[in-house]
IclR family transcriptional regulator (Shinella granuli), 502 residues
Amino acid sequence: MRETDFVGGFAKGLAVIEAFGEAKPRLTITDVSKETGLDRATARRCLLTLAELGYAAYDGKFFELTPKILRLGHAYLSATPLPRLVQPYLDQLSEKVGQSASVSVLDGVEIVYVARAAQKRVMSINLTPGSRLPAYCASMGRVLLAALPEAEARAIVEASDRKANTPYTKTEPEALMEEFARVRQSGYALIDQELEIGLRSIAVPLENARGRVVAALNIGAPAAHASAEDMVTRYLPAMREVQAALRPVLA
Amino acid sequence: MRETDFVGGFAKGLAVIEAFGEAKPRLTITDVSKETGLDRATARRCLLTLAELGYAAYDGKFFELTPKILRLGHAYLSATPLPRLVQPYLDQLSEKVGQSASVSVLDGVEIVYVARAAQKRVMSINLTPGSRLPAYCASMGRVLLAALPEAEARAIVEASDRKANTPYTKTEPEALMEEFARVRQSGYALIDQELEIGLRSIAVPLENARGRVVAALNIGAPAAHASAEDMVTRYLPAMREVQAALRPVLA
């Protein structure tokens, strides 16, 4: 790529949008400058452009994003066939097992939820399409990392900010690489309270007709509802059915 | 705003993202140029910038958005307290009445879903946070338009592409303005198969502690489940409770 093919103002503007986030709903020009590393004048121009286009509101001091910004993420969700294709299967699966079911894809060191059928909320965080979790400690993340060439999976693990969310969280690269090998062999990943105490989840890869892993499917359940063994005996068969049904459908 | 405060490359780039959408998941440079009105060279530079930053994938001919683009919409969803605040109420309401419940806000002539608790899917379209519907023919849209000064509501109605989705859809500006007056008096809007045959929905405004309408709440139900009268007698009382519970909570 030649440097002249790069629209610097566009790249900076996208960084400004990403500066907004949880616990940072209202930002000043100074806040955005700090958050993005852009100089104040550039941050200001990007923010004013967002306001002029209706993607942000400005009260003279603080900027906040408006719902118009959802058009950008929605461009992906409505353009990509994956969420539409999997949603009916997720709905049926979630209803059948009485637990939440989700589909996600890998984006860097994180997984991104692209579809979800929720039963009663059991996690402390609210997951919707677009939500992110660190891949290394999420069942869908383990499945997606296990599907990568080993060197690539290792690089992602090493680049991850590996916190022990609970006393059970695996954080050592070697332990994680061994876990990926187990996942490849068994065809599923089971997370037993590694992300959050009281929560278990099980995931399988979703392959397309050519055998390439394009996404992961999971079921999450309160630990009080299902032991680790229950997760496998109760939920895995229904997940295998969805996996098989989707294989010829996914591109 | 001075012209020098506007980052043209940023504005063009955002238009390029919005060019992707349903039925347009994969676009060539020419497609994007046509869709946005940008010249080919500009469209190309914006697309290559998206690809360079990982927001798009490029196979040498077609561009498609990647899940990274969801970060942009998610910046709003996670930054804005509204979705988080209303979600537990929506979950409870949806479970209580056995129907889908949603919250949306107005964006131009459309409503945007910011939170949703879905029961079995009844609409032909798949609604998730970020989904849009024309305000004039959606129950939440009627509630939000009814809360505006009349001249403003009329301007939005007149700017709307008012199609008769079904034989029941109100499309005449005068009929809609009368409907808004009814909504203001009764405190709720009822849509009886105006958006889609077989679907009814009822909406109420959500006010903040200062009495300003900040969003709308609705319940949608298959016509076979509930007559228009049932919508009011069965669902409205539970919706009124949510409305009252949220009033002190909403900013």
